[in-house]
Every structure is written in structure tokens, then in C-alpha cells.
Design goal:
Bound molecules: FE3-S4 cluster
Helix content: 40-55%
Largest sheet: 4 strands, parallel
Strand content: 15-25%
Distance between the termini: 17 Å
Order of helices and strands: EHEHEEHEHEHEHEHEHEHEE
Shape: flat
Structural class: alpha/beta
Number of helices: 9
């Protein structure tokens, strides 16, 4: 191989890195530590945490007395955090500050009598969590859904809307949704809450993939971010391998290639 380009943005984003460090810090303090769901879509890191004594629970009911719980970077349902507080469980909230900002925006919108609108994947844990910070959220997965909702009742154009995005929302989906809102609605506040880290990583991966013969995307199979990177690279490069580690690369993966990229 003549040239290998490694993405500068490769690796954990700030929010996930912070969550992982918070778990290790809790483990170092001793005592029992659980995470509510896997803290990160990365089997190596999760297995290491388990080896060091962490437990993964899927619901608050599974927590044992005296166990401290870490909330993952996607955030949690408000009702779950309230329940933990009522029960006196020591809770380390590793929700990414970018996600907390969105939770606050929707809560504040509702307090001001506005209708919160979230553009994102309705069943994604981050979106489900954000939606729980207000009592009547609207979640749209893209411009068609926004248009349909507005077309159902002409009076909806006059409802004061506050629009936010899932942190990992595909930019084009958010922007086309906002164009409809700006054109049709009389009172809309729009907050571009797409995470900068995701955006930069996707842009850089696309740039590298456009210049190399083979592109390798390393990430957990369950991660939406990993899948998005593979999709983006595949549009620019005809030879893309998505793997969890180097052992998964097939024999001859770089045969005949002069330049490789890695994210
Ligand atoms: Fe990561 Fe937080 Fe962005 S978890 S992808 S820095 S929203």
C-alpha cells in the first residue's frame, strides 16, 4: 500500500468518550456499578467494563440495593430519572450535553405554550428520551411527515412550533423539513441541534472515501453511526469494508489497491 489515510475524526465522539470515562471513574471508586443499557455500541469496551465489575441492566427494576447507575449518552426517559431520584438511587447522568440541551429546549418550548417538534427516528432511544421531556411532542422522520401533518388541518400553520433535530439526524432531512416549516408556518422557532462531531466525521469520511481505492470503516455492527459512515463511504468508493476489528478483514481486501482510507 502506498498511502493510508486515517480520519482525524475517527474514534469516540466527545459525548461517548465522556460516558465511558464516567463509568471507569465509578468502577475505580469501588462498590457496585450498573449501566442502564450498554453505555456504548462497542463490544470490546462493554466487555472490558463487565470484566472490571460493571453490570448492564435493561430496566431500573433489575438494579440491586446500593448499586449506582450510569445513564448512557443517548439519555433516558424523564420518568426513569424521576423514578431513580424517588428511590434514592445514586445516578451518574452521562447523557451527552448536546442531548441535554435538546431535552431542555423541548421542555422550555412547552412551558412557553409552544408545540415541540422533533425531526428524527421516532424509535431511536435518544428521540424517545427527548420526547419524554414534554407531554405532547410531535416526532417526524422527515419532510413528508411534516407536510402530511400540516396538510391534515390548515389551522396547524398558526400553531407556534419549536423545531429541534435528533443529534445524528441526516442534515438533508432536517433542512428540507425546516424549509417546509419556514414556508408554511407563521410562528416557528428552529434550533439546529445536529451534533457537530457526527457531521464532521461524516464529511471527512466522504472526502477520504472519494480519494482512495479501498475504505475501511471500523465500528460496532449495532451502531447507527457506523452504518451511516459505511453508507456514505459506499457512495464515493466502490470497495468498502465495515468491520469490528482487523481480524474481520477478508484475505486480499487490499489487493491491487494503492491508497486506503480508515475511519
Ligand atoms: Fe456524541 Fe454527543 Fe454528538 S454522544 S455524537 S457528541 S450528541
Amino acid at each position: 500500500m502506498e498511502k493510508i489515510t486515517v480520519a482525524k475524526t475517527a474514534g469516540f465522539c466527545f459525548g461517548v468518550d465522556r460516558a465511558v470515562k464516567l463509568v471507569y471513574a465509578e468502577l475505580e471508586k469501588g462498590g457496585r456499578v450498573a449501566t442502564l443499557g450498554p453505555i456504548i455500541h462497542n463490544a470490546d469496551v462493554v466487555n472490558d467494563m463487565i470484566a472490571k465489575g460493571a453490570r448492564i441492566v435493561s430496566s431500573v427494576e433489575e438494579l440491586e440495593p446500593g448499586e449506582r447507575v450510569v445513564i448512557r449518552s443517548h439519555g433516558e426517559l424523564k420518568s426513569v430519572l424521576d423514578h431513580l431520584e424517588r428511590q434514592g438511587v445514586t445516578c451518574v447522568n452521562a447523557t451527552c450535553p448536546n442531548v441535554i440541551r435538546i431535552q431542555r429546549l423541548v421542555a422550555q418550548a412547552e412551558a412557553e405554550g409552544r408545540q415541540p417538534v422533533i425531526i428524527g427516528e421516532p424509535s431511536h432511544p435518544e428521540v424517545v428520551g427527548v420526547a419524554s421531556w414534554c407531554s405532547h411532542p410531535l416526532v417526524f422522520d422527515g419532510p413528508e411527515a411534516v407536510q402530511r401533518w400540516l396538510a391534515e388541518d390548515p389551522h396547524r400553520r398558526e400553531i407556534p412550533l419549536t423545531v429541534v433535530a435528533q443529534t445524528t439526524c441526516i442534515r438533508e432531512l432536517f433542512e428540507t423539513s425546516c424549509e417546509i416549516v419556514k414556508k408554511e408556518c407563521t410562528n416557528a422557532k428552529i434550533f439546529d441541534t445536529i451534533c457537530d462531531a457526527t457531521q464532521k466525521r461524516q464529511t471527512e469520511a466522504a472526502e477520504i472515501a472519494g480519494k482512495v481505492d479501498v475504505m475501511v470503516v471500523v465500528g460496532d455492527r449495532k451502531s447507527a453511526n457506523t452504518r451511516h459512515l459505511t453508507e456514505i463511504c459506499s457512495k464515493r468508493c466502490s470497495r468498502v469494508f465495515q468491520v469490528e476489528d482487523a481480524d474481520e478483514l477478508p484475505a486480499g481486501w487490499a489487493r491491487g489497491c494503492r491508497a486506503a482510507g480508515l475511519t
